[in-house]
Design a protein that fits this description.
136 residues, alpha+beta, Arc Repressor Mutant, subunit A
């Protein structure tokens, strides 16, 4: 497993809910997963606020179960990528990528897949995001 995921303890996660709690702990603030209407072609989005992180999942464009969990895992990798030692360099610009040949987005997809494979190997097939809630 990649060092970014391992550093947050995600190599031990048994569910996507547990992964959300671990990422929230790594960031030092709550992480909330909610459904939203994100528009055509956007399945997930991460928004960072001073008091919490928000992962939006488009319920109309994602299938319940593994697909939705993978969308959440993808956004969790973006959240982990934002953790840098030292002072923040300033606002992080929002990014919305839909090009599959973008190397940064390919890396995030690969890490999200690694996380999902790890969860599947530790948990059960029932260990899926079954509720949308706030993780602390």
């Amino acid at each position: 497993m990649d060092n970014l995921l391992r550093a947050a303890g995600l190599d031990r996660a048994r569910s996507i809910e547990e992964a959300c709690r671990l990422v929230a702990a790594a960031r030092g603030k709550p992480l909330e997963v909610v459904e939203g209407d994100l528009g055509p072609g956007v399945t997930g989005l991460w928004l960072a606020f001073p008091e919490r992180d928000l992962v939006l999942v488009d319920a109309r464009q994602t299938l319940p179960g593994p697909h939705r969990d993978h969308v959440v895992a993808h956004e969790l990798v973006h959240v982990l990528d934002s953790i840098r030692p030292g002072p923040a360099p300033g606002p992080v610009p929002a990014g919305c990528r839909d090009e599959h040949d973008d190397p940064a987005e390919q890396r995030v997809e690969r890490l999200a897949s690694e996380l999902m494979i790890s969860i599947a190997s530790h948990g059960s097939s029932a260990a899926r995001l079954t509720s949308l809630e706030l993780y602390r």
